[in-house]
Design a protein that fits this description.
Structural class: mainly alpha
Distance between the termini: 75 Å
Shape: elongated
Strand order of the largest sheet: 1-2
Strand content: 5-15%
Number of strands: 2
Number of helices: 6
Radius of gyration: 20 Å
Order of helices and strands: HHHHHEEH
Helix content: 40-55%
Amino acid sequence: MERAFKGIWIPKEILHDEKLNITEKIYLSILKMDLDIKTNNEMAKFIGISNSRLSEIKKMLVIKGYLAYKELTPEQKLEAMLSYKNTGKICEWCGCKTIALQEHHYPIQKKDGGIEIVKICPNCHYEFHHVEQMVVIINE
């Protein structure tokens, strides 16, 4: 039987560590709880911060020596890709399932009056920025 989530317990060694700010303490405590949070988006929403703020926290924890980046084996990469494919991220332009979605992309730049935000995959994002010309038949 699965227990309902009731809160976060911060271990004493994390709580009293003066090198950490409160957000770093919360983030490290959540990591130690081994919750089923697979993506940065899920973690940022869980904590209540932006993805960019979460990236800053992770970078600082690497610099401070609390986290480290680990190179994945091909098998681990495949496992990660397959598990992330079930996160429900779907490109609004091509319909593919993806682990990486550009969630704040403006097809028409804000400075040019664009207001629409779309969620697109890296392939569509790349193609959008590299399509500058097309060949057309000139009617005589």
